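Working notes for the structural subgroup meeting. M.R. asked for a predicted model of this chain before we commit to crystallization trials. I am recording the input and output together here so anyone reviewing the notebook later can reproduce the run.

Input as submitted:
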Amino acid sequence: MLTATSVSFKYSIMAKISNKQKIRYRIRTKISGTATRPRLAVFRSNSDIYLQLINDEEGITIAAASTRDKDIAAQKVTKSEKSKLAGAAIARKATEIGIGSIVFDRGGNLYHGRVKAVGDGAREGGLQF
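Returned structure, recorded in token form:
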């Protein structure tokens, strides 16, 4: 049986998801990745963070990294520090391919906390936004 509290709770969660999706779509209309300057897409879950370098012209993923990679997941550090390591890992992969400049797609998340740590790690790794 649905109560007034459960209905309002369900609505608030759906509204939050819908608002984040609107933000993502608004960001994606403004930015796009190319072969020379791919888009660094960030997906943040509760426990991990996933990064992809995407060429939107061809619709392919050039490189990917996440906090679930073996060398990053084995370390016993905080989620923010793991995110910074993932940013450094994607920067290392990008420089091996020959990419020095990217477009940062925060994926609807605020540029704060783990998303900012990814950006800092990528910058320290040599990528330019």
